[in-house]
Amino acid sequence: MAVLVTGAAGFIGYHISRALLERGEQVVGIDNLSSYYDVGLKTSRMTELSQLGGQAFRFSACDIADNVALTARLTSEKFDRIVHLAAQAGVRYSLKDPGAYAAANLIGHLNLLEWARQREVSHLIYASSSSVYGANTVLPFRVEDRTDRPISLYAATKRADELMSESYSHLFRLSLTGLRFFTVYGPWGRPDMAMWTFTDAISEGRPVYLFNEGRMRRDFTYIDDVIAGVLACLDRPPVDDGLEKAGGSRSPHALYNIGNSRSEELMRVVELIEQQLGRKAIIHLQPMQPGDVPDTYADISATRRDHGFEPRTSLDEGVPRFVEWYRSFHGLA
């Protein structure tokens, strides 16, 4: 039976679909192909998946917030697991278009929970975010930490997804796993994220804007490590045994951090990109952006304990791989 992947045309969605196809799974992919960033990049990802998967990959443009369209698309499909990655991403954009976050991240997530309940799927994995930790200052971030003080609407919607999932798991005994991703990067990444914007700016001789006067640190997690973690979690659903799960639930609902478990200076990323491109960055220091945090750092002890998750790609390895892909994708190699 197939795996339903929402957000299949997105960065992580593309890679998880590819990994599932490569291990012999059938994938039903849906994505609304929103114009939040270049739709051409999304269609290029879909072309790659179609060529790889053939008849094992079935894709349709579909908005998860539109339950009528979702019903028309999924009624004839058979799937027993869901990897739910479709969402409106980005902290800063939530200041401009909050409605997009309510539609995709709240209504869309609820629609997928209903589909999981109606189909009695064996496991639904969904994307949460490190943003749920808000203004926490105690590092590293643990899944047991407080998450009731979000500092962006994006973070608030992702925490709401976790709470809705907890209620559905409790009421309907659904096996659900929420994954709090930490700054994922790598080939086929998102153009709005730092790794891409820095590489783009440096290669074209434009300024690189560093917020908080450059005093920013992130737990950069390479896409291959992320996918290994997602698949490990997918293959081991939380058990309905009444015992406490990662994140504190006694329902079959677990929460895990998916990070590299290292907090890296943003300037180090700039330096590595400079080395790969053979060009110096023009750096403009800026004040902190609303809704942003100065540091992220994942405690992955629960993910390691329950799923053997062990990220292997250092920043020194991952950044050159991304820059090499970026140059090839843009015909610069």
From TrEMBL:
Highest taxon of source: Bacteria
Enzyme class, spelled out: lyase
Pfam entry (one): Epimerase
Keyword terms, alphabetized: Lyase, NAD
Domain NAD-dependent epimerase/dehydratase span(s) in chain numbering: 3-237
The keyword Oxidoreductase is annotated on this UniProt entry: no
The EC number(s) this enzyme carries: 4.2.1.46
InterPro entries per UniProt: Epimerase_deHydtase, NAD(P)-bd_dom_sf
A GO MF term: dTDP-glucose 4,6-dehydratase activity
Keyword NAD listed: yes
PANTHER family (UniProt xref): EPIMERASE-RELATED
Protein name: dTDP-glucose 4,6-dehydratase
Organism: uncultured Sphingomonas sp
